[in-house]
Amino acid sequence: MTQNAENTLKVAHQAFEHFTHGLATGEWQAFLDMLTDDFTFWFPVGKFHGFNQGKERAKEFFEYVCASFQPGIKLVSLDHITSNETTVVFEFRDEGLLLGQPYKNRIAVSFDVREDKICSYREYFGSDGKSY
Prior knowledge:
It is a single chain. The protein is α+β, with helices and mostly antiparallel strands. It has a single domain (3-125), classed as Nuclear Transport Factor 2, Chain: A, CATH 3.10.450.50. The protein has 3 helices and 6 strands. It has a 6-stranded mixed β-sheet with strand order 2-1-6-5-4-3. A hairpin with a 6-residue loop joins strand 1 (35-43) and strand 2. The mean pLDDT is 93.
């Protein structure tokens, strides 16, 4: 593994820890602090569907996630991590309450790393609630 790939993995792991902490507690500042000023993200559905840009938009998104999942989302398992020189993908399972209803899902999030920051985030998910 090259030094750049090692740094990418290290930064992404730190960001993922802040990310899962935010999901569980609603405390997103540590994750937001790791984002570049020109941060972009892609989300598959809903109010934030598609391409989004900027840290302020990201803050709105994660506040929306917080409001939707009370009291928080619990990471159940981290199933796979795949990485290269610039990108790390975390595949995991989570559960909680979505708008008061039981929720569980399989998720893949992709972090693109530039130096010691996350410059891009993409999320993919899908489960029929049974194939957990």
